dolichyl-phosphate beta-glucosyltransferase
Amino acid sequence: YQVIIVDDGSTDDTANTAAVYGRRFEGLVHVLKLDENRCKGGAVRVGVLHARGRLVLFADADGATKFEVRKDLEKSMKRLCGGDIEYTFPGLVVGSRAHLESESVATRSFFRTILMVGFHSLVWLFAVRTVKDTQCGFKLFTRGAAARIFPVLHVERWAFDVDVLYLAEMLKMRVDEV
């Protein structure tokens, strides 16, 4: 495995702290420090384009998804590939929090719930129909899928996930949600 930490132009000590781990785990941890903020999508794009693996997983740094869930994404990827994972196969598996939807509505303000429902409706109507939770920051790509999607990604802001999934659908890639 390889861990790539992308510091998106932060002004705190993120890059230096990450570099300590990079020295401790030489060859496994890589730190990319961007001179200026490119927003979440831009940072993920840079990280994915620097990845060397046959599978590429991106995970938000907030820890909202437990890293052990990657095993479930890998199982789903095996199913998509028909048994053994073929790294040139154009597939991606998306983590999902859709099963927590009723729970999150209870803790979210009414106004924010309306905005969320409106966003999801617009995304479904105009862009992505294969995935309910487009914004989950835990996605697994084969090398083939990452190599086709990320060089042509247009959106670098917070809704870049929609662009990723839209491109996957337009390229007729196999997509699964776990």
In short: The helical segments are 14-24, 39-50, 70-80, 101-107, 110-126, 143-149, 160-170. The mean pLDDT is 87. The longest helix spans residues 110-126.
